[in-house]
Amino acid sequence: MGHTSGIGVLDKAVQVLRAAADRPIGLADLCTATGLPRATAHRLAVGLEVHGMLARDSAGRWCPGPLLGSLAAAAPDPLVAASADVLPRLRDRTGESVQVYRPDGMTRICIAVSDLTTGLRDTVPLGARLPMNAGSGAKVLTAWADPTVQRAVLSEATFTERTLAEVRRRGWAQSVAEREAGVASVSAPVRDLSGGVVAAVSVSGPVERIGRRPGIRWAGDLVEASEALTARL
Hints:
Order of helices and strands: HHHEEHHEEEHHHEEEHH
CATH class of the largest domain: Alpha Beta
Number of helices: 10
Number of domains: 2
CATH topology of the largest domain: Beta-Lactamase
Shape: elongated
Structural class: alpha+beta
Largest sheet: 6 strands, antiparallel
Strand content: 15-25%
Number of strands: 8
CATH architecture of the largest domain: 2-Layer Sandwich
């Protein structure tokens, strides 16, 4: 159940929200997931639905409602805030563009960037969705993903399970002309308090400038930046 507030009805309502967040859920499964009596679970779910915190799908099951999305959009993102401090220093140290990617199923989303202002650079727009089947950021996120995601990615990836094992062993990944011709990159994992990998921080730029073994140049800086981001979460 996690933390309790001491306010019984609030804690039970949060139980219901958590259960519905995992997947669309009917009343019977809601009772099983929360351990609440049928009448209590139903009363709380309907009340949360009235306030827009739950909604119903076409099968009548409860799922997250529109108010939750609005609240989440308004909340500050601690990883984005941490990136604003860490990325410019990494950019200045490496002289290359830097990004932070967060996994989202079979894609990764660029949630923070710090680009060079002049010269030849590899620019990834903020909010861009990139595939998980190529690139150093994809390797990092896949290396620590759950087995189901790993299998799905590896079925289409330019890299193998052996590559992922090496990424886990050394703590960073590199790529040369995998995602885009002429572009090389290095990435390292960003972890949450429990040690789970929640993002990848990357340095990317032209192969002609970074070279074909970019990890030799930038892995130490990437790991240092990833540890700084982790410390701020």
